[in-house]
Design goal:
This protein is of the alpha/beta class. Helix content is 26%, strand content 17%. The strands form four sheets. The chain has a six-stranded mixed β-sheet. α2 packs antiparallel against α8. The two termini are 46 Å apart.
């Protein structure tokens, strides 16, 4: 047993009240002057000792106050036996009745928020299966077996493989799923400023490799429709481009900015490499500007000054930096079986407050019966 609020035991100081009351009630003697005793010599007064008449009533009152103080301390009982019945959860979308069959002894639930029983339809939710499994693992007692039925392929994957505190019986259920590949979105370039014609030819070749269409004509308008801004000139970015960049846009500088240019001074974060070749040489770096990002090449964008642009995989690698591919959310269910090693769930304590209240009521009834009994009423 443990106490959630040990300071409640300070109420034990009230145990002095019944003791003082019982001792004070013994002073029934009243002095009475008697004339014939005035000429008697004074003698030693008889000594008295403390005596408690109603010791059972006093003990009940002390026990009642001690129980009240213990109730204020909020006692709970730790531990207890774990439920050995296996808990089986079924992901929504699977036929739970067919999977259960004639098994009526186990605890079957939906893998949905609240983990409703299989007889109750689950509510629609967008919570990932991985989060629900982690929550269920910390809800169940440590010794309860867990069986999981999930669709294969498994949707709703996150960035980390599931890790639970117990070994799980992982049972994927094959489902026909359309195999649509996660093809990254092709970058669409918006060119601004006047620059080297060789750089324009390289950019046009990259745009054709990504989308199959030629590069649009250069314009100083702000990029729109999610396009990647490309600034060719060495002059500073126009104020409209700088505001668009700070609000979350992406600008690729082809020519090195002039020293002390305004756009170079708007960022406080350092330049970080985001693309290197097989030998580790720098191909592209970026820095944060507000909510946007500013990228640049280490050399002029031409095959003579920057031979890496002639590599076969350079368009693909540059595309992955400009528009990163989406994180896959489907996976083979058999490969996503949970790992073990997570922290074991804490045992759920049992609240003793209802039992304490029952004991207080019984003690109070017994104390009132003794305090108002006929024997006490007849006592002079």
């Amino acid at each position: 047993m443990s106490l959630l609020f040990p300071l409640g035991l300070l109420a034990l100081a009230t145990l002095l009240v019944p003791l003082l009351i019982h001792l004070a009630r013994r002073q029934h003697e009243v002095p009475l002057d008697f004339a014939a005793l005035r000429w008697l010599q004074a003698r030693v007064r008889p000594r008295s000792r403390v005596r408690i008449d109603e010791w059972l009533l006093l003990a009940l009152r002390l026990l009642l106050l001690a129980t009240l103080a213990l109730l204020l301390a909020q006692p709970v009982l730790q531990g207890g036996t774990a439920d050995v019945r296996p808990v089986t959860v079924v992901a929504p979308g699977l036929d739970g009745a067919a999977l259960r069959g004639a098994d009526d002894e186990g605890d079957w639930r939906w893998l949905a928020p609240g983990f409703p029983p299989l007889q109750q339809p689950p509510a629609a939710s967008e919570v990932a299966f991985a989060s629900l499994l982690r929550e269920l693992d910390q809800t169940l007692p440590a010794g309860t077996p867990l069986v999981v039925h999930l669709p294969d392929p498994l949707p709703g994957l996150d960035g980390e493989r599931i890790r639970l505190s117990r070994t799980v019986q992982w049972r994927p259920q094959p489902l026909p799923v359309a195999t649509a590949g996660t093809v990254p979105e092709a970058p669409r370039l918006h060119v601004g400023g006047n620059g080297d014609p060789a750089a324009l030819r390289v950019l046009d070749a990259l745009q054709r490799a990504w989308t199959g269409s030629p590069l649009s004509a250069a314009t100083d308008d702000v990029p729109a429709d999610g396009r990647i801004g490309v600034w060719l000139a060495a002059a500073p970015l126009p104020p409209a481009w700088q505001a668009w960049l700070a609000e979350g846009g992406s600008v690729l500088r082809v020519a090195a900015p002039q020293p002390g240019s305004a756009d170079a001074g708007t960022a406080t974060s350092p330049w970080l490499p985001v693309l290197r070749d097989a030998q580790g040489a720098l191909l592209l770096e970026q820095r944060r500007v507000g909510r946007g990002r500013l990228l640049r090449f280490p050399a002029a964008l031409s095959t003579a000054a920057f031979p890496a642009v002639a590599d076969d995989d350079f368009p693909r690698r540059l595309r992955d930096v400009l528009t990163p591919p989406p994180v896959p959310t489907l996976g083979v269910a058999a490969d996503q079986a949970p790992l073990t090693g997570a922290a074991a769930p804490l045992p759920r304590p049992r609240d003793l407050a209802p039992w304490m209240l029952l004991a207080i009521v019984l003690l109070f009834a017994l104390e009132r019966w003794l305090a108002t009994s006929a024997r006490r009423r007849s006592t002079p």
